[in-house]
# Entry
Amino acid sequence: MPNEAADMLVRLYDLPETDPRTAGLATAGVSVRRAMHIDRDRIVDYVSRHFSPGWRSECQAAFSRQPASMFIAVKDREIIGFACYDCTAKGMFGPTGVTETLRGVGIGTELLRRCLFSMREEGYAYAVIGWASDAAAFYTKTVGAEPIPNSHPGIYRRMIGMG
# Structure
């Protein structure tokens, strides 16, 4: 299991400009936008309720930048998903999450794409998706991400007491 939860590499200059899986989001009442600092408490609360404490900390880090390095998905004025970049480390995508009952309709795809396009606009040629784990197939299919050999546990080694 040496590559379990491996990091993945995305060539940002190869990103497809459109994705048919996200075409119906606006019609379904879902908007995806960059998080604003005024949203911070609501977002951190959402992440705390639905995801891990570590993700909460990383989301707080996204607000140390202006503009924030985070996008959110909203439906009926409720946050239903989020995605961050440059939180764990420069050039890294994640964490990201979508409310469990709303997964599989393109929200995560659009959040991922918005973050990666922002990274490309900021001058990055590549992005690392950290600790891809069971979502590796999604990242490969969606943005052509490739596993980075021998990257487990990568930057997370300090977090899990390996270094």
Observations:
- DSSP finds four helices and seven strands in the chain.
